[in-house]
Amino acid sequence: MKVSIQGVRGSIPTSGSQTAHFGGNTSCVTIMEGDRMIILDGGSGLQKVTLPDPEVKRVDILLTHFHMDHIQGLGFFSALFDPEKEVHIWAPSSITHNLHSRLNRFLSPPLFPVLMRDLPCELFLHDISNSSFEIGPFTIMSQFVIHPGATVGFRVKGKNAVFAYVPDHEPALGPKGLNFDKKWISGFELMEEADLLLHDAQFTTEQYGKKIGWGHSSMEDAIQLAVYVGVKRLLLTHHDPAHSDTKLNEILEALKSKHTGQFDFDLAREGMEIELG
Q: Of 220, 164, 171, 169, which is closest to residue 197 (Cα–Cα)?
């Protein structure tokens, strides 16, 4: 299984640099197993995604939720404008509006010039919740997690590895806070003993104290959570866009110094490719 990171919500370049080391695109990750690809989230990083085989007919996009930084790339994804393509979009269900009506709010004027009904691809929409389903060689679990609005995380099992994707999550807001008890941890089953976890870590501990309830995690909380659920490797994502590359590297150095020898963690970076299994 190969995990490729196309967008992490971004950092700002260090002074004097033209590009951000950690990346400026918003959330998007692709997973390959053999010649089959699935796409997690449709942020601006989706524009960088190319299909492994131009002849492939089916494309699957799995959305964690409908905040703009996770869907803003959809309208610029070439497969949606290809009449030869069959595009499947999977996204969390809502008790108030179906998936079609929520997508249509974005893929229509004034936010976007092309109406969803005019997209030439063959479009299939799938409402999911606490669900399990299969796409090609992938077995996928979705589960609601703590974040404003209907939001899920994903656990993707390939032939020889498990990848957990929880990019927007505030586990410390659960009923037990960080006094971990398996049955109370938001998203525990998604993350448990995964080979790789990509998890929200927008804030420093100091920042988080002023942002409780915003739906995002501190880096320290994400590390504690990953240790508790037993993941083999953690990538911290959803970087605060106000943090420069220099600031992020300083934070990472401090975290590495504090957690020396515990387990493997790093900051996610746009362009990363990780082979699992």
A: 164
